[in-house]
Amino acid sequence: MVLEEVRRDSGSALSLLLLRDEERNGRITLFSSGLSEAQHHYYIQHHRQDIWFNHYLEKGCKGVVKANTLSNKAGLLAGFGAHFAIGGVCRVSGYGLASVSSYRDQQQTDFGDKEIDVWDGLYFGLASWSRHYWNLVGLELQNHQLQQLIKHQNKAVAIVDEKGGVQYSNAEFNRIADDNHELRMQHGVLSVNNKDQQRQFRELLAGFTYSTPGSPRYLSVTRGGGLRPLLLQASLMSGLRNAERYIELVIRDPDHAFSPDIAAMGNLYPLTSGERELLLLLSKGYSSSDIAELRGVKVETVRSTLKSVFKKTDCHSQSELLLLLQSIS
Which InterPro entries did the record assign (predicted)? Predict the structure, then answer.
């Protein structure tokens, strides 16, 4: 409707507004007034051949310019009767671009300076708007990617802010948070019921405020009923738009069995069949002496094999090795 009014007010035969998302495989949205449906689809398919997307950008133009300053034809739509044209492109590097253009046929006069001034105002308004638009489009894409990332992980994981506010979480994370009364989820904020451990949890999250992505930080949450502590693992996420600071929070429950993917571990690291068997037994809770007895070897042999696994995986303890295995599984 707005484009229709712009076309009429400017005395144009055709007016176009094109949006091209450069983050999502160049997805095109075209608003047009004066084009038939077939012409509309034709322009979408061939828009890169238009003067606005080659000559204009190559010459580093700014604002609205007349087509005859770029080419001896009125661009791609000359074949549809366009004889005079003005237009401009607003590009937000890495995110997307927007173009605005208007056309007159040969029975009309060319665009004058005053009309170009009016279109210039429209162009610079579009430039300001497009920065906000592409930022919102990018945030929408980022949020979708984060949701999918969390949803399909084989571990209890959530994305939280520096105050424990849960932005996204998967079913396994929600299950552990619900099943363990030591944790509390209220109004979308995760906390620990024990006051001292809640203080430690706040400090752990607040520690990411001015830090850069690096090694994970850990907090052990004690449980009653003879259950081993829950392990909270927090890592600062990197590469987020608008410098957003989100934290990936993983809950590891040592009493909740997981299915170790020994084959995946063996593909990532050059493990022998004996080392893979050792990993499988460790994941089932067997100690070095238990494994030695099961395999009919000395404890020293098991420890030597374990040292070899440490060296290949760059781990320094059994707990670190099991965390690595669990993250892969």
Answer: Sig_transdc_resp-reg_C-effctor, Tscrpt_reg_LuxR_C, WH-like_DNA-bd_sf
